[in-house]
Design a protein that fits this description.
Layout lengths: L10 E13 L7 E12 L2 E13 L6 E5 L6 E6 H20 L7
Antiparallel strand pairs: 1-2, 2-3, 4-5
Length: 107
């Protein structure tokens, strides 16, 4: 039995992280969670469906992983869990300082 209004389609599908959270509770080991979705794209449109999540604790700050070029996926270097922690800490402090010290008005 054919599907109602069935249309042939060709395209691609892939998995992506659509949200990232970091649980940085007081006196606990930080945990990063990536929430994943499967994306299907055809000439008829694009759909995204949540698929689950992937979590990792920062219990060993020396764990190293390859850095990837966002456009090509090629390896460009290495980083550690500690590098991530330092970058996020620095970003938080930068944004908090910018919020707390707005630019002076020009008279």
């Amino acid at each position: 039995m054919p599907h109602y209004s069935e249309q042939p389609a060709s395209g691609a599908s892939w998995q992506r992280a659509y949200k990232v959270t970091i649980d940085n509770g007081l006196h606990t080991i930080p945990v990063v969670t990536f929430y994943e979705a499967e994306v299907v794209s055809t000439e008829l449109g694009t759909l995204s469906q949540h698929k689950g999540h992937l979590s990792e604790s920062f219990s060993d700050p020396t764990v190293a992983f390859p850095l990837l070029n966002v456009e090509t996926g090629e390896e460009t270097g290495m980083a550690t869990y500690q590098d991530i922690y330092v970058i996020l800490y620095s970003l938080y402090r930068y944004l908090a300082k910018r919020r707390d010290t707005p630019p002076e008005e020009v008279v």
